[in-house]
Amino acid sequence: MNANVRALLLMAGCLASGLSMMSCKEDEPEEFGFTCVELSQGESVEGDPFAGTYKIVLKLDYLPCLKSYYLDRHPEQRLDGKDGPAVFEEWKERLCSEDVARRIDCTVEEFKQTLMTTGTESYSLAVTYITPNPGELNGRKILWGPGPLPDYAECDTGDLPFAALTKQSGITGQNKEGKVLWQAQSFTDNKGVMQLSGGGCIQAPIAPVN
Asked: Helix, strand, coil shares of the chain as percentages rounded to 5?
């Protein structure tokens, strides 16, 4: 169902029930969520690969359901769409404040959504984070999004709104001068679903960039 239609139905239901819009809005279900990536020290990596990190760029590929959601079913929810900017603005704060155990401390600097591909580009969303505590990244989780939750993504039967960490996308850590310090060592368990909990994270063992 279109987000605007849902809003009109909600308003009508509130008025019919004699509820204020404020109290009714509190009961409105979440339509968007996040997936997560869990950082760890890579195999045979000596020392702390995260030392000196100031900025993290996490780019995940949209798998078929998410790709179709933004390209075909709901282009108004794109970052540059009619309704999308408000959703992305809300999650710019929430990605670094949701109550998820072992979430990194961060602020979101920017989003970059790619929905037209050229060359090696993929259908993807890149999120850039500033992190104040590089010494506390090992074993911590990064929240990535927003994206529609399974109940609202309108996936084909049997599919779910997945995003993936691949060689075509990736994750990197940079220092304050913009030098890339580290990247994913491998891409095991590289697929995560949009959700509102911190479980089932994509695993990202990290190694320094020589």
From this structure: 25, 30, 45
